[in-house]
Amino acid sequence: MEDRLIVRKIKDGTVIDHIPAGRALDVLKILGISGKEGMTVALVMNVESRKLGRKDIVKIENRFLKPEEVDKIALIAPTATINIVRDYEVVEKRRVVVPDEIVGILKCVNPLCISNSPREPVVPRIAVVSRQPLKLRCTYCDEEFGEEALSQLVSQ
Ligand code: CTP
Ligand code: ZN
């Protein structure tokens, strides 16, 4: 594949590969990257992939991801691979994993849910009922919802 590289290899940083086509900008939003921070970022969108048909890739130099960021990426890009690059070599490659329960990163969509009460700080807990299609259920109020709830991760 070397001769087909659209963007050069990076020296140190993170390559998020196998992102479903069209989701690269959502991945950047999750990471809080607007382009004004000064770090070098490469976006590749809608390139051919043997596994996915089409895919996006995000390469970020000198940036490594926090577990919470990886969990969020898993939700909006469940096919993604996170590659950690040091001195041009991929030293770690991990598939993202959608956990059985999502703790603290997604709010329940039910405004009356105890986990949304402004009076007591409750860490939201949401069970993953199905992965494809994504079906979620709040552990507190049993409200069920789907992919539409993920908009809260990428808006602001
Ligand atoms: N990559 C990069 N800079 C490097 C090393 C790798 O930008 N110094 C990128 C590659 O272009 C690729 C991804 O990181 O998009 C993973 O690299 P590699 O494991 O070498 O590629 P594949 O074997 O094709 O990965 P996979 O099996 O996960 O598809
Ligand atoms: Zn709830």
TrEMBL record:
Record gene name: pyrI
The organism named in the record is Infirmifilum lucidum
Known role: Involved in allosteric regulation of aspartate carbamoyltransferase.
The keyword Zinc is annotated on this UniProt entry:
yes
The record lists the membrane-crossing segments as none
Q: What is the lineage of its organism?
A: Archaea, Thermoproteota, Thermoprotei, Thermofilales, Thermofilaceae
Give start and end of each Aspartate carbamoyltransferase regulatory subunit C-terminal domain. Answer: 101-148
What the entry lists under SUPFAM superfamilies is as follows: Aspartate carbamoyltransferase, Regulatory-chain, C-terminal domain (SSF57825), Aspartate carbamoyltransferase, Regulatory-chain, N-terminal domain (SSF54893)
Residues covered by the Aspartate carbamoyltransferase regulatory subunit N-terminal domain: 6-96
| Binding note for cofactor | Binds 1 zinc ion per subunit.
What the record says about family reads: Belongs to the PyrI family.
The protein's name is Aspartate carbamoyltransferase regulatory chain
Q: Name one GO cellular component term.
A: aspartate carbamoyltransferase complex
